[in-house]
């Protein structure tokens, strides 16, 4: 049975808390090198102290802690430069697929449709406009391998607003509308991509599907936003 998103999120939060607790320990033990022998030994000792393995008295909790220890130990190793070999990667993939379908994995990696949460993640994500252009034109696959269909509509003014001038149009026209008074340029773009039905440009039909939040990683969305931000061509006088 696949462990649903709420349980996975709780586990992720627990692991994050434990890793946060370890940061000052590592800094005190070996400030110059958190991946040095002394720092790693200390982190392992602290982890073992937090996640005890008392199989005789509480087997269920011990098994849970054993799993969490394994996840944290793997994370420590990866953070310190360990590269799993082909066999190890295969085992990890097989274990994951025992609990999650491919659709579950895609959903877990996608940005979803929570605009506020996405904006927070984007603050720490650098977008590459060249990669964004490839995504936009369907030349770079999204999660699951499907290409985006952006250019198919946005290069035809009869169907959707043109790609050229996207930044200018948002800055000079859209953000001047009362409903977008408190919006940032990035917020408008993100909402337009992951929740396109929230605002329909008056002269166009509602044809953009609400599927892209489930097809893009945060990095891909950052790349796409960076590309659209580069579209600052002047608008034709109307």
Describe the fold and architecture:
- There is one protein chain.
- It is built from eleven helices and no strands.
- It has helices spanning 5-29, 37-50, 59-79, 86-99, 102-109, 115-122, 129-136, 150-154, 166-172, 185-194, 218-229.
- The longest helix is centred in the first third of the chain and has 25 residues, at 5-29.
Residue share in helices? 55-70%
In what range is the share of β-strand residues? under 5%
Total beta strand runs: 0
The end-to-end span amounts to: 58 Å
Main beta sheet, described? Answer: none
Order of helical and strand elements: HHHHHHHHHHH
Overall mean confidence score, pLDDT:
87
Please render the helix and strand layout as text:
Elements: H1 5-29, H2 37-50, H3 59-79, H4 86-99, H5 102-109, H6 115-122, H7 129-136, H8 150-154, H9 166-172, H10 185-194, H11 218-229
Please describe the structure with a list of short key phrases separated by commas or semicolons.
238 residues, mainly alpha, disordered N terminus
Quick gist of this model?
The chain is mainly α. The protein has 11 helices and no strands.
